[in-house]
């Protein structure tokens, strides 16, 4: 533009680009375009697609988890596995995977916890069949139906002999406790899981014997010549060692009860054996000699009157019941009959005749052990 002063002025660029407004008004800036309804709907579709994808992935994951937890396991041959006491789910799962019983410890942990069985898995030794699923493994551990081993303690064994049995049992663990009092362990067959401690089994035997003795003692005949429960068990242990024939125990008990009432010495060979050899027992090739019968020790009932100071073995229920309820006889003697049993008599003359008969049987057999010659 040319002005009166002949100078040149540059107009702003904006004014050059803006179209002239109507009626001299300045034009308003353009409004931003609104999102179309299509775009809004498209966003909803995208969100729903995301949810569908997530759901599909979750479903596929759940299906995969279900297939692994319920499907056939990797084990190809029957095996056993020991679940240690106080083991958590993680430890159990890792051990099962390492042993090849399950495929994935993490899946087993998750399945066990989702099933609410996390705190219900029990210790023990279990047998697993080929192909057992993780759920089957879990249910087996929940049931506690583990493999049970057994140990039989025969009647008439000493505490030392019982300890020897427990020590030699390979499925038990740990050391033996201090020697228990004689007569305090119950003869019985015990069932236990692999890994049980030897001390725990001995404690089980002791508690079982304590219950048994108390039960029989409370039901005893009122006129027994024993003053306390220790003498009761002591006499039962002698009966136990004298015969292994069930039907004879009340008769043997009657002989000793009658002798106690008459203040006669019991003259029991098993008490002599215990006094000489203790809990280890008499060597099988060692006879009882006359010198043994004269040995002055507290357990020798040939030398000392009354009962010895304590039991000489662990009596079982039958021997305890026999002492609690002895047969009603007048017998004072018995001697072996050569067939595994005994002959009973009320007089010394009858007894001597029975002894002569027994010695004749031994001579016919070509032997006469010194430990049988004494009789009763």
What's the structural blueprint in terms of helices and strands?
Layout (H helix, E strand, L loop, with lengths): L12 H5 L19 H34 L8 E5 L5 H10 L6 H10 L9 E5 L5 H10 L5 E4 L6 H10 L20 E4 L5 H21 L10 H14 L6 H13 L7 H9 L12 H4 L23 H8 L8 E4 L5 E4 L2 H18 L4 H4 L3
Antiparallel strand pairs: 1-2, 3-4, 5-6
Helix pairs in contact: 3-4, 7-12, 8-9, 8-12, 9-12
InterPro entries: MLTG-like
Subcellular location: Cell inner membrane
Main location: membrane
Query: How many separate domains?
Result: 3
Distance between the termini: 157 Å
Shape field: elongated
Order of helices and strands: HHEHHEHEHEHHHHHHEEHH
Question: How many β strands by DSSP?
Answer: 6
Q: In percent, how helical is the residue content? A: 40-55%
Largest sheet: 2 strands, antiparallel
Mean pLDDT: 86
Low-confidence runs? 1-18, 370-374
- Widest sheet: strand order? 1-2
**What is the count of helical runs?**
14
Structural class: mainly alpha
Alpha carbon gyration radius: 45 Å
Strand content: 5-15%
């Amino acid at each position: 533009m040319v002005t009166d002063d002949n100078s040149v002025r540059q107009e702003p660029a904006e004014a050059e680009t803006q179209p002239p407004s109507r009626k001299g008004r300045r034009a308003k800036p353009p409004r931003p375009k609104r999102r179309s309804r299509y775009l809004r709907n498209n966003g909803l579709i995208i969100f729903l697609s995301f949810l569908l994808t997530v759901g599909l992935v979750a479903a596929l994951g759940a299906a995969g988890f279900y297939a692994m937890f319920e499907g056939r396991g990797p084990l190809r041959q029957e095996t056993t596995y020991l679940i240690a006491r106080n083991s958590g789910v993680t430890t159990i799962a890792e051990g099962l995977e390492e042993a090849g019983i399950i495929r994935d410890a993490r899946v087993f942990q998750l399945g066990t916890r989702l099933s609410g069985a996390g705190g219900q898995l029990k210790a023990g030794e279990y047998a697993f069949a080929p192909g057992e699923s993780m759920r089957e493994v879990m249910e087996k551990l929940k049931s506690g139906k583990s493999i049970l081993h057994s140990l039989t303690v025969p009647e008439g064994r000493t505490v030392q002999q019982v300890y020897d049995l427990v020590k030699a049992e390979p499925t038990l663990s740990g050391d033996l406790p201090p020697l228990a009092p004689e007569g305090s362990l119950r003869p019985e067959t015990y069932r236990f899981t692999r890994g049980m401690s030897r001390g725990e089994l001995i404690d089980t035997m002791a508690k079982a014997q304590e219950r048994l003795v108390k039960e029989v003692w409370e039901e005893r005949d009122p006129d027994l010549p024993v003053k306390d429960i220790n003498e009761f068990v002591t006499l039962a242990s002698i009966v136990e060692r004298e015969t292994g024939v069930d039907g004879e125990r009340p008769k043997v008990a009657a002989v000793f009860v009658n002798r106690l009432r008459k203040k006669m010495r019991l003259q029991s060979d098993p008490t002599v054996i215990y006094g000489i050899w203790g809990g280890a027992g008499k060597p099988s090739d060692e006879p009882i000699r006359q010198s043994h019968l004269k040995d002055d020790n507290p357990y020798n009932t040939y030398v000392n009157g009354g009962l010895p100071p304590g039991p000489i073995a662990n009596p079982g229920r039958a021997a305890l019941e026999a002492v609690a309820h002895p047969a009603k006889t007048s017998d004072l003697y018995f001697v072996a009959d050569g067939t595994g049993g005994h002959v009973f008599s009320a007089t010394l003359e009858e007894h001597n005749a029975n002894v002569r008969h027994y010695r004749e049987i031994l001579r016919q057999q070509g032997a006469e052990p010194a430990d049988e010659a004494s009789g009763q």
